[in-house]
Q: What sequence folds into this?
């Protein structure tokens, strides 16, 4: 049954008809026409009220009120932009941070890995005396597969890189080698084409290749006819047989784009001692991880007995694949999530405190509106609406901020780390993250719309007009708020000191004396084919050709080659000995670098004694070396090292020292320089080396030119990792580590500082609003404005100083805990501590200045009359 | 039947009462608003006076609840009027509400006792 909505006109007509009927009835009862009309009208009462009530009937009055309340709320909030901006910003900060970090947690820990029932997958390692996570050999893999009864399938994989022929020359590409059934073990099907067939790793290794979705898109532009195309990898033609699904990733082998089968017909595959593979397996239904681990350990024991030569002390280690992939980041993420949660809590308490101040200041407004007829329910709705509008703004800004924070946090992760965490790539504002944001927002909305109601007694509205209302609840809140502020300031202090120390460490690290001038240097790794450059003469020619080609380019002032770049991982060690000197124990290890003649000149390193290399220092002359100052000081503290001879495991004959160079930072920036020995590349040439070029133009724009020139020498040369020396230093692991930790702690410190300041403001302003009457009395009794000002500032100073003092103690403690993270700065660095105390004191002054000014500007007459 | 000093809960009670009286009046047959008002006044021996504005809102409320229906018609003296009649749902409601009311008055009578409290004006 469809009910028509009755029109107002129809109702009016009915009233009219009633009046006429009534008039007639009254006339019949004996009244005159005029009197009857009058009486009918008066008995009906107000026609307009009846019509108004009819109009309101059934209409969504609450919706209209909501719209009106919403508009009023926005007006109220805009009237006090300082309060609104602060509350919205603080809320956005708390929500934004927690949502951003939750997005990471979601991507890494909540979102399931893109395999079929990923919880049933395990990763297989061999453990040995050195550690629990080592590779297994191909023969061990075959035996494990044959002898176990706990896995429904087992496969192996290894990270690998290949030389790919491209139109621009040979390039190194990342890849993975897997056994035939690898994708079937994971339960993954290719998006295009086919999977490797059973036995494909035995018969036709390296002749078929699968591409990842990203590789297909980026390198081949997503061309639809990709399956069936040929590529040349490591000089062998292979056919692309398939493309992996878009959301597929396999972190342990990341970032490999080319997937080939393992090689099973070479020497390595026939030797049980040749370890290079990791296993992945699927547990049979009903088999637990512990049971699988136990059985594999017995399998390994049997193999150990059977092959004591190769398998001594080699045990099996089975761990869940999920743990292997995200196990490293789980604790970090949990710490970050707890930090963000704490931040959100403090932010919420701060906003609640600001709302209380505001409510307190609006008590009279509420009383007046109550007196004018607003019902308690209506007033309550008004406050709830304001809370909701405020929360909505804060949440929207927060979610937007979360998006930006996600990008920023991703940038803090080193590129090679992010490549090993492909699960982070799908990170974003997905349903789960938005759901989380909504839940947080809903809780915040509830908190912020109900907080003001705590402080308003709607039953006794008139109280607001007459009494100051210093209630027990108010005092309780002040005490709680004061403690909270002390805690916030102390936290901010600790975090700021941490950020300061880390920041200073990073600065020191970047300004450490590297013994070279990194500006205007470009570098690239070059590798020639092993067959073409097999002899020393061929290698020397190859090196000379590359140098000459690059020197011919415009803007190039100097070209050098080296077996390794400075500011590297500090590897490339060899053991030395001196015939005339006793061994210095186990530490006779030095960095050795084979460098070209112009190496020291190109880096602008400082020669301290003797000479550098000359072109004439070649295979036809006795071997020579340049040593660094650390080596000279260590082994020749009081003698002239020039003319002395070094015995080394890299050379047959003793090497004569012809020069001493000032220390060049070969290893990581934060470790002290090792003794180093430089040998002329002409006497010890290689087909793989780094080219270092000093240019007069911007080195970054020189990189493509450099790459092209090297390929002109021989298109078969592979080049990779072309970069400027500045970038190389900036991206080095220690620089990354210090930079990210400084930024991370710094951002948390910034937020803590902001919260502390807002919290302090809230507490002091609340206190002032509660003491208006007292202040009025004081001023009426002759207190000067300055003394009121001081009184408020003193209250703020007490809180700030307590917070800073507690923070200082904990900072010293935290500083000593993070001593290991610092470089070139003490954990009690006076400058950092002073600066932080200064910043906090200034911020606290700022936060208390506004309420103090308001207190001092109280008009005693108003204050007393208001009560 | 209403007074200025009425508190909230008494209004609610009276509102319910008015609904019941309207339903009862309509049992006799379709009737327009003015007729309903007259009928209530007459049958209560002029004790109840019906506020006409409230009556029409009550009628509308009952119509919204689908206890009564309405259509425009012509009155006995040829005036256009809106005639209300009971729906089966309204009839059921009347039986239920009337029963409730009778139980209430009986209980009140039992507690107050027959004739022990007299109207002071009549005394």
A:
């Amino acid at each position: 049954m469809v009910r028509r909505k009755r029109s107002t006109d129809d109702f009016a007509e009915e009233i009219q008809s009633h009046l006429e009927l009534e008039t007639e009835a009254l006339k019949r009862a004996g009244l005159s026409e005029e009197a009857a009309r009058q009486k009918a009208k008066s008995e009906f009462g107000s026609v307009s009220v009846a019509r108004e009530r009819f109009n309101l009937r059934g209409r969504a009055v609450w919706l209209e009120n909501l719209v009106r309340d919403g508009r009023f709320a926005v007006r109220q909030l805009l009237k006090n932009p300082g309060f609104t901006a602060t509350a919205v910003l603080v809320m956005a900060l708390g929500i934004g941070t927690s949502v951003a970090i939750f997005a990471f947690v979601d991507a890494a820990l909540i979102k399931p890995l893109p395999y079929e029932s990923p919880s049933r997958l395990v990763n297989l390692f061999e453990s040995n005396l050195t550690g629990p996570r080592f590779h297994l050999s191909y023969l061990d893999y075959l035996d494990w597969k044959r002898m176990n009864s706990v896995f429904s399938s087992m496969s192996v994989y290894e990270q690998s890189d290949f030389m790919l022929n491209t139109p621009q020359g040979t390039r190194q590409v990342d890849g993975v080698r897997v056994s035939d059934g690898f994708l079937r073990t994971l339960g993954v099907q290719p998006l295009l084409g086919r999977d490797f067939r059973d036995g494909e790793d035995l018969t036709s290794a390296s002749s078929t290749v699968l591409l990842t979705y990203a590789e297909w898109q980026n390198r081949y532009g997503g061309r639809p006819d990709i399956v069936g195309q040929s590529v040349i990898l490591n000089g062998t033609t292979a056919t692309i047989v398939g493309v992996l699904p878009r959301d597929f990733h396999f972190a342990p082998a990341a970032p490999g784009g080319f997937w080939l089968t393992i090689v099973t017909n070479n020497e390595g595959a026939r030797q049980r001692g040749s370890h290079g593979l990791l296993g992945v397996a699927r547990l049979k239904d009903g088999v637990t991880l512990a049971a699988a681990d136990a059985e594999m350990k017995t399998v390994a024991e049997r193999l150990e007995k059977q092959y004591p030569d190769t398998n001594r002390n080699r045990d099996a280690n089975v761990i869940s694949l999920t743990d292997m992939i995200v196990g490293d980041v789980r604790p970090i993420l949990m710490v970050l999530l707890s930090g963000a949660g704490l931040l959100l809590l403090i932010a919420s308490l701060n906003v609640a405190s600001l709302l209380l101040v505001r409510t307190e200041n609006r008590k009279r407004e509420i009383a007046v509106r109550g007196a004018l007829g607003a019902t308690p329910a209506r007033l309550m709705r008004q406050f709830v609406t304001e809370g909701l509008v405020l929360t909505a703004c804060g949440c929207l800004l927060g979610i937007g901020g979360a998006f930006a924070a996600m990008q920023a946090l991703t940038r803090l992760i080193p590129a090679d780390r992010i490549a090993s965490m492909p699960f982070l790539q799908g990170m974003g504002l997905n349903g789960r993250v938005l759901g989380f944001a909504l839940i947080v927002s809903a809780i915040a909305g509830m908190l912020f719309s109900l907080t003001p109601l705590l402080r308003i007694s709607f039953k006794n509205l008139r109280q607001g007009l007459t009494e100051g209302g210093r209630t027990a609840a108010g005092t309780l809140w002040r005490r709680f708020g004061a403690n909270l502020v002390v805690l916030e300031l102390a936290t901010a202090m600790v975090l700021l000191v941490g950020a300061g120390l880390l920041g200073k460490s990073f600065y020191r690290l970047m300004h450490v004396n590297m013994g070279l001038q990194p500006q205007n240097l470009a570098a690239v790794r070059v590798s020639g084919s092993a067959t073409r450059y097999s002899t020393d003469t061929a290698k020397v020619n190859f090196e000379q050709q590359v140098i000459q080609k690059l020197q011919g380019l415009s803007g190039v002032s100097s070209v050098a080659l080296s077996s390794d770049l400075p500011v590297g991982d500090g590897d490339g060690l060899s053991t030395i000995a001196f015939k005339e000197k006793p061994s210095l124990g186990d530490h006779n290890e030095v960095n050795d670098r084979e460098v070209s003649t112009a190496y020291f000149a190109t880096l602008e390193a400082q020669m301290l004694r003797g000479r550098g290399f000359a072109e004439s220092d070649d295979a036809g002359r006795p071997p020579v070396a340049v040593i660094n100052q650390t080596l000279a000081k260590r082994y020749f503290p009081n003698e002239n090292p020039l003319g002395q001879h070094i015995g080394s495991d890299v050379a047959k004959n003793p090497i004569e020292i012809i020069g001493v160079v000032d220390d060049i930072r070969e290893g990581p920036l934060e470790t002290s320089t090792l003794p180093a020995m430089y040998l002329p590349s002409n006497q010890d040439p290689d087909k793989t080396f780094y080219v270092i070029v000093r240019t007069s133009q911007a080195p970054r724009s020189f990189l493509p030119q450099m790459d092209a020139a090297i390929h002109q020498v021989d298109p078969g040369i592979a080049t990779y990792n072309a970069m400027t020396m500045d970038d190389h230093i900036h991206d080095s692991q220690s620089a990354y580590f210090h930079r990210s930790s400084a930024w991370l702690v710094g951002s948390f410190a910034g937020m803590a500082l902001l919260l502390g300041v807002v919290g302090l403001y809230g507490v002091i302003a609340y206190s002032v609003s509660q003491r208006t009457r007292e202040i009025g009395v004081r001023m009426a009794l002759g207190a000067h404005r300055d003394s009121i000002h001081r009184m408020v500032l003193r209250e703020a100073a007490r809180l700030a100083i307590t917070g800073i003092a507690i923070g200082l103690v904990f900072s010293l403690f935290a500083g000593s805990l993070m001593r290991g993270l610092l470089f070139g700065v003490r954990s009690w660095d006076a400058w950092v501590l002073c600066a932080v105390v200064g910043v906090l004191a200034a911020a606290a002054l700022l936060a208390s200045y506004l309420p103090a000014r308001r207190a001092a500007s109280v008009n005693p007459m108003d204050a007393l009359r208001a009560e | 039947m209403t007074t200025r000093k009425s508190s909230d809960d008494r209004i609610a009670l009276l509102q319910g009462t008015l609904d019941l009286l309207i339903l009862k009046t309509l049992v006799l047959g379709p009737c327009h608003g003015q007729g309903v008002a007259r009928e209530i006044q007459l049958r209560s021996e002029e004790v109840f006076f019906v506020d006409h504005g409230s009556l029409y809102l009550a009628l509308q409320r009952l119509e919204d609840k689908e206890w009564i229906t309405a259509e425009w018609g012509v009155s006995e003296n040829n005036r256009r009027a809106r005639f209300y009649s009971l729906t089966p749902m309204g009839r059921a409601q009347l039986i239920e509400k009337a029963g409730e009311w009778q139980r209430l008055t009986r209980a009140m009578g039992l507690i107050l006792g027959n004739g022990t409290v007299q109207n002071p004006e009549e005394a």
About this structure: DSSP finds four helices and three strands in chain B. The two ends of chain B are 22 Å apart (CA to CA). Strands of chain B lie at 31-32, 68-74, 80-86.
